[in-house]
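Q: Can I see a sequence and its folded structure?
A: Here is a first one.
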Amino acid sequence: MTKPCSCLICGQARRHLVPATLVRTSVAELIRSDHPDWTDEAYICLDDLNMYRSQFVAKVLAEERGELTAAEAEVVRALKEHELISENTNTEIASATTIGDRLSDRLASFGGSWSFLIMFGTIMTVWILFNSIHVMQQPVDPFPFILLNLILSCLAAVQAPVIMMSQNRQETKDRMRAEHDYQVNLKAELEIRQLHSKLDMLLTHQWQRLLEIQQIQTDLMQQIVGHRNSNDSKPGTRSQ
């Protein structure tokens, strides 16, 4: 007589034994981690097999919850390892500003304000009135106010380069800000692509795990149906 087979896990010779070749690979790996002597010739009882199936499902669910946290940690780590590009460009611009640059900015800012227009209009009005009503016997600048025209010409000749210098500095500022915005946008685009790739890998891995769980559930349902059919086929189980 042949020696009756027994369960490798509990060591008992039970009626319902499943050969190792019918156990799914994912569950077999979990069994082999606890029992290194698990081979293709071994057998396992349904109680122990269902126990390992439950352990595998619980392990998969725990890993899925942990993988979400791991993915978030990976993104944070990747962001920390790369040097931050965002910076205050105004500080860099201010550090490279000379005294002449600051003076030209202030003159251009004052020359384009209402204070300058009001003061300039007031001075011109007083100048014209002072030289028109003959307060003095000999006016400083009689009509047609040649001295006033000379002063205005000199003011325009000085104001134009000052405004141009200020505009050149503003153009430099805008160019630096544009380059900085480009670098920030490029880094953001690369980070978004990296996040998309990680999400795609995570979703693919989750689908594979979900299919494994569904396959185990299908095996359990088939065993339940087979066990019920075997009980119904026994004599005396039907109602008289």
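Q: Show me another, different protein.
A: A second, unrelated one:
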Amino acid sequence: MSYFEAIILGIVQGLTEFLPVSSSGHLELGKAILGDASIPQESMLFTVVLHFATALSTMVIYRKEILKIIVGLFQFNNNEAFQFSVKIIISMIPAAMIGVLFSKELEQLFDKQILLVGLMLWLTGLLLLVADRAKNTGKDVTLAHSIFIGISQAIAILPGISRSGATISTSVLLGVDRTKAASFSFLMVVPLILGKIAKDLNDGALDMNNDQVGILGVGFIAAFITGVFACQWMIKLVKNAQLKYFSYYCFTVGSLAIIYNIL
């Protein structure tokens, strides 16, 4: 992979992590189009690093909310901040279990599975189309909601299913306020990505040679900068109920991916 390709994939990750069109799916499509010859483990490493970059951009945008969550969690008072922290933790459990129990199997899904990406993009499109028609309310995320949202996040590990699209759509269909749904969706993934990084560091899975450092670095920077802008843009889009346009995009790209795989 060249530096130029790393920058392109970083920009793709930065945009698609927050826009409901599946960042992992677009990364796999991008790798296939650019002719990336990485083995699954190396491909997964690049994906993890770029996800860490967008997690960091989320932390920049939501720094005040994250500080409030951390403070609330260690106060052990049954206040709003503590309750929100508990909901975030509960939402993490399904994806964390899948990640720990099926890590080897998941690596194989990030090996140019273009047909899978195409089919899952269609599933994402359908979910967004249904959610866009749901009525907006002023409800907060409840403990019960956090379980269902967490399950949707676990399913979205599959490349082609948008994590933000799945979690925001699930929240909206459950009656959660759109702006609150977007905030919860972006915040709930941060601990998971940081946990994934910590686990991989401990297991030695993120060991890299000197040739990889520069490539990963430029990809990281591109994803972080793009992610800061995309995160703020997505919040506005969700608030204004414009998810259907992303569903049309997912249908189009999903169809192209399926045709590409057949040809």
